[in-house]
Amino acid sequence: MDMMTRIAELLAETLEQVFPQTEGLPGAEELRGLLAVPPDPALGDYAFPCFRLAKPLRKDPVRIASELCDGWKHADVASAEPVKGYMNFFLQRENFARETLQAVLSQGLKYGSGDEGTGKTICLDYSSINIAKRFHIGHLSTTMIGNSLKRIYEFLGYHTVGINHLGDWGTQFGKMLCAYQKWGDRESVEKGGVDELTRLYVKFHEEAEKDPSLEDEGRKWFKRIEDGDPEALDTFNWFKELTLKDTAKVYDLLGVRFDSYAGESFYNDKMDRVVNELKEKQLLTISEGASVVDLEDEKMPPCLILKKDGATLYATRDLAAAIYRQETYHFDRCLYVVAYQQDLHFRQVFSVLRKMGYDWADRCVHVAFGMISFEGETLSTRKGNVVILEDLLKQAVEKARAIIEEKSPNLENKDEVAKQVGIGAVVYTDLSNNRIKDIDFRWDRALNFDGESGPYIQYTHARCCSVLRKAGATDAHALDAGALTDDEAQSLLRLISRFPDTIREAANKYEPSMITRAITDIAQAYNKFYYEHRILDDDPAVSAARVSLTDATRMVLKQGMYLIGMEAPERM
Predict the structure, then answer these.
(1) Measuring CA to CA, how many Å separate 341 from each of 131, 242, 347, 456?
(2) Quick one: 46 and 182 in the same domain?
(3) What is the spatial distance between Cα 316 and Cα 514, in angstroms, rounded to a whole number?
(4) What is the three-class DSSP state of 374?
(5) N or C: which end of the chain has fewer CB within 10 A?
């Protein structure tokens, strides 16, 4: 049980004792939600605003705070002081240190985990790369947010299904097949891979400007794909294999895995059911020749289901995908990690699902995120201003290798550590801020070993490992918790004790940056503790306490880094 929950339960008991037989008093769960961490540690470790009790008790909050503090009988956990309508709690430092360390050291890397997700399934739709296109930095956020959320939910006991909803359908693929037939050959494509496919696609558009009839040829080739023509399908599937082979290298670098690669084409034979069901339920109307679902009652534009020529659209496929996922995985939640520009699209799709009578539509969630720029430059695929993700990751590793060579010339396994640090720098940068904020990726910030960065967290973890190696075997049972009552140790312990709660808040708000922020704060607090106190003290009991706190810090940093998709090198 985390400290906030414990204090909330004891506060609920105190309320009943001090104000018996009073209706409308909050229970432990509500009280926990009202507890806050004061901005100034001098005001306490936790604070409860008594204003919430003014109405049911018909008393002034200042008086309520005073009476509650008088009735508080749990000094072994925390003392309580009234301050301007707040009940401020000051933890009993020695007991708090002992209990927090025991919790972390007994659970190890499972500290903060849970079983609340047992028997529940969460589907996560993320990354969703496009076939025959290079994996660029614009796909970084969807990939890393989705990967982190998957790890977080698994840590809390959920069964997760990671889905890479491939962009593998549309007339652009007919154009690509047309271009391949006219100007390509198998040997060149095998050798050039996705870059050669991109070249052919660009050439098609260049030639189509001179000869508009090529557009019709492209549409005919896509019709052949739709109709299951063997030649068209074989070539199209070959293009998909080449793309997945290319992206596999990036996913391996990032440590990202998927359970399903069912993309848009997978739902080609499942959309008739959606259209027929919409017709049967009299939800489809004709607007300018197209088939739409009217959403005026929800103050949204109509959701386009079929074009004038009967062709399906993204919404049609997403409706089919949602129904398939529910019937296949029986999800408790289905998350769509997609940029915020698609907000209207998903609101429309979820609204149509509700109109179709699917009550589980409310369990579909659009996890939106902001845009990414590079060194101040806005990126655009159409303008050719893109940063290929594999190139970015390789460059990050090279830059990290150069820094390590300078800082730690005698380090073993420099290449492996450079890979961990370089990739970690990119991941940290992407997940360091609230996901809805836009990101400007800059090398000087990403690879800064001294600031708020991935390398800083990793270096702190490596420092903890170094201390533990020097300390050797330590008897944690012989530690003197009284040696951890100083401000620096207590600040670090408070952050560590809140880590389990942070994980759950990150899961509830779909916000991995909360974990990134937490481990950054923990790393900073540990370094302050490290500089202010001699870890390996002459007193064995004091050393045992400080070494145990170092070990607890190491574990939390390592687990936190894993949850956001970073590696934890032991030497740097």
Answers:
(1) 21, 29, 12, 33
(2) no
(3) 35
(4) strand
(5) N
H/E element, 63: helix 61-71
Residue pLDDT tens, the chain, 572 long: 678 889 999 999 999 999 998 888 899 999 999 999 898 888 999 999 999 999 999 999 999 999 999 999 999 999 999 999 999 999 999 999 999 999 999 999 999 999 999 999 999 999 999 888 888 888 999 999 999 999 999 999 999 999 999 999 888 899 999 999 999 999 999 999 998 998 898 889 889 999 999 999 998 998 888 888 999 999 999 999 999 998 999 999 999 999 999 999 999 899 999 999 999 999 999 998 999 999 999 999 999 999 888 888 899 999 999 999 999 999 999 999 999 999 999 999 999 999 999 999 999 999 999 988 777 666 554 445 578 888 889 999 998 999 999 989 999 999 999 999 999 999 999 999 999 998 887 877 778 877 789 999 999 999 999 999 999 876 656 678 999 999 999 999 999 999 999 999 999 999 999 999 999 999 999 999 999 999 988 888 899 999 999 999 999 999 999 999 999 999 99
Question: CA 477 to CA 489: how far, in whole Å?
Answer: 18
Please tell me whether residues 419 and 555 are part of one structural domain.
yes
Task: Please give the tally of structural domains in the chain.
Answer: 3
Alpha-carbon Rg of the chain, whole angstroms? 28
Tokens 């779909």 correspond to what residue? 510
Angle at CA 287, nearest 5°, toward 283 and 291? 50
Same domain, 85 and 185: no
Q: Are residue 556 and residue 425 in the same domain, yes or no? A: yes
Domain end (from 239, 255, 271): 255
In terms of pTM, does the model score above 0.85? yes
- Residue 342 covered by a domain: no
Q: In this structure, is residue 117 part of a structural domain?
A: no
Alpha helices (H) in 293-385, listed in sequence order: 314-329, 343-355
User: d(Cα 105, Cα 125) in Å, to the nearest integer?
Assistant: 35
CATH number at residue 431: 1.10.730.10
Give me the torsion for CA of 368, 370, 372, 376, rounded to 10°. Answer: 180
Residues 78 and 225 in one domain: no
Q: Quick one: tokens of 516? A: 């990134």
Assess if residue 515 is contained within a domain. Answer: yes
Assigned domain for 373 exists: no
Q: By residue range, what is the domain housing residue 433?
A: 408-564
Q: How would you write 479-495 as a 3-class SS string?
A: CCHHHHCCHHHHHHHHH
Angle at 301 between CA 296 and CA 307, to 5 degrees: 120
Task: Find, among 424, 367, 429, the residue nearest to 572 by Cα.
Answer: 424
What CATH number has the domain bearing residue 11?
3.30.1360.70
Q: Which residues are paired to 337 by β-bridges?
A: 367
Q: Are residues 74 and 191 in the same domain?
A: no
